[in-house]
Amino acid sequence: MKSSNRKMPLHRLQTQAAVCAEIVLQAVSQSLLAGKPADRCLKDAFYANRQLGSRDRRLIGETLFSVLRWWGWLRRLAPRPFVDAWEKRRDCPEEIPAAHWYRVLVGAWLLESPEEVPQAVHVWAGALEPADLELNFTSRDASWQEKWRSLIPLFYPAKNPKGDLLELVPDWALELPAAEEKIDWTELTGWLQKRPPLWLRAQISDVAWLCRSLQEQGLQAHPHDKMQYALRSKATSLNLRAMPAFRHGDFEIQDLASQCVGLVCDPQPGEQWWDACAGGGGKTLHLAWLMQGKGSVVASDIRLHKLDELKLRARRAQFPNIRYKEWKGKEMPKWNARFDGVLVDTPCSCSGTWRRNPGARWSSYPEELPEFTRLQKQLLSNAALAVKPGGTLVYSTCSMFRVENQDIVEAFLAENPQFELYPFVCPLDERPCNGMRQIWPEHGDCDAMFTAKMKRIS
Predict the structure, then answer these.
(1) Peptide bond into 93 cis (omega under 30)
(2) How far apart are CA 66 and CA 98, in angstroms?
(3) Does residue 237 sit in helix, strand or coil?
(4) 392 to each of 273, 332, 382, 457, how far by Cα in Å?
(5) How buried is residue 389: exposed, middle or buried, by Cβ count under 10 Å (0-12/13-18/19+)?
(6) What average pLDDT does the segment 247-266 reach?
(7) Which string of b and e fits 315-331 if b means at least 16 CB within 10 Å?
(8) pLDDT for residue 5
């Protein structure tokens, strides 16, 4: 692998490497010890260090996500006081010099298979002992065994430590029933370690024009072979939100699996829909677009600030058919049998996003699941009251675990005989299913997502 071509004086390079390492480690600490989402850690770090240039920001962001993605292995190289604090879920009792983390930072880049290795990484590597340490950056198609072997020199003076791919996910996750009994955790973990692509959703009918427009702005995007409005691109450092096409509402950033949920809902123009747990509103916008601006979508969430975010997105996309309502998850008698369709995209463990948000796998714990499942049952049961006879009820999560998915739906159907599963064809691969479908990363190079479609029959 080659180093970045743009050279800078050695003293400036050493200063850059030290500053960036310090910021990365502050973000790592916030993510692993405080459970703060990695993207929010970056946002706060960049706000506090507004002097950083684009190259420094890219180095910090890529290093942070690489450390979190490979933490299951890299923790063996991390300072012991920090690892102890992380394992015991408490603050680190002492301040650790950034230089004590250089093996972790270098290890992250050894594993990430970059096309170019930033010069700062070589500065970190040059500070390691022994001075003649031989490091080999892995290729993009390297096996996980080859990637592990690239780390072995960093364990000096230990020789040939053993690595296991399943160390890259929490032990407790391996012990839970997955959403499909035959899931191969080794294969799934391999997918979780791959950098995800960037998925966009076109909000105009002329997809070819949008692709040309994006290309003119430096972004190559190509339509999915079965979902024509889903566009795939490589992860980019471009500011997508500053692009004219984004500001005009011509596209949204939305994972492929998430786009499948709206297509499974299949709302028709003129219908009345309720997105009961709208969050930031990605699926709400999709429903409104599929309805061609006709009929209405009510977007609800317990977090009012999320609805404020959705209002801005809807205004940008010029959707007049979205209304907003706070909902705390309780029964809404005045909404009984009111809607043609209800989408319940419930809060969950978010384990299906561990590929895109690798820090979440290390800040999630099994004791959180009972509260999630209690809430999921409550939200689904209460939201279902709003479905008209003959109407559609869709339940979805970005979880990989059966306890949050099939178990919730089966319990709901057992208690609510007025609903039954509604078979559908999965838009991702055009395979028919009985009304429940778990999407895995391997199915579309995307997040994991569960969707169940039900019909009210009486």
Answers:
(1) no
(2) 17
(3) coil
(4) 9, 18, 14, 10
(5) exposed
(6) 97
(7) ebbebebbebeebebee
(8) 46
Query: What are the contacts of 93-100 at 24+ separation with CB within 8 A?
Result: 96/25, 98/18, 98/21, 98/22, 98/25, 99/21, 99/127
- Token pair listed for 177: 């029933």
Residue 445 Rama label (left phi>0; alpha psi -120 to 50; beta): left
- Residue 1: is it exposed, middle or buried by C-beta count within 10 angstroms (0-12/13-18/19+)? middle
pLDDT single digits (tens) 391-419: 999 999 999 999 999 999 999 999 999 99
Strands (E), 259-406: 272-275, 296-301, 322-326, 339-345, 387-397
In the structure encoding, which two tokens stand for residue 203, read together? 């909000």
Bridge-partner residues for 323, per DSSP?
298
Q: Verify cis geometry, omega within 30 degrees of 0, for the bond prior to 157.
A: yes
Q: How far apart are CA 126 and CA 34, in angstroms?
A: 31
Per-residue pLDDT at 4 exceeds 60: no
Q: Which residues of 42-58 are buried (b: 16+ CB within 10 A; e: fewer)?
A: beebbeebeebeebbbe
DSSP tag of 358: G
Q: What is the pLDDT of residues 127-139, one digit of tens each?
A: 998 877 788 888 8
When pLDDT is averaged across residues 357-381 and rounded to a whole number, the result is: 96
Name the band, by pLDDT with cuts 50, 70 and 90, for residue 1: very low
**Rg (Cα) of the chain, in Å, rounded?**
23
CATH number of 197-254: 1.10.10.10, 3.30.70.1170, 3.30.870.10, 1.10.1840.10? 3.30.70.1170
Q: Is 414 exposed, middle or buried (0-12, 13-18, 19+ CB in 10 A)?
A: exposed
Report whether CATH 3.40.50.150 matches the domain 256-456. yes
Tokens (6 digits) for 324:
């907003």
Q: Would the pLDDT of 176 be above 90?
A: no
Q: Which of the 8 DSSP states describes residue 242?
A: G
Does 335 or 93 have the greater pLDDT score? 335
Residues 85-136 have pLDDT tens digits of 999 999 998 889 999 999 999 999 999 877 788 999 999 999 998 877 788 8
Q: Phi, psi at residue 397, to the nearest 5°?
A: -145, 160
- Residues 271-298 have pLDDT tens digits of 999 999 999 999 999 999 999 989 999 9
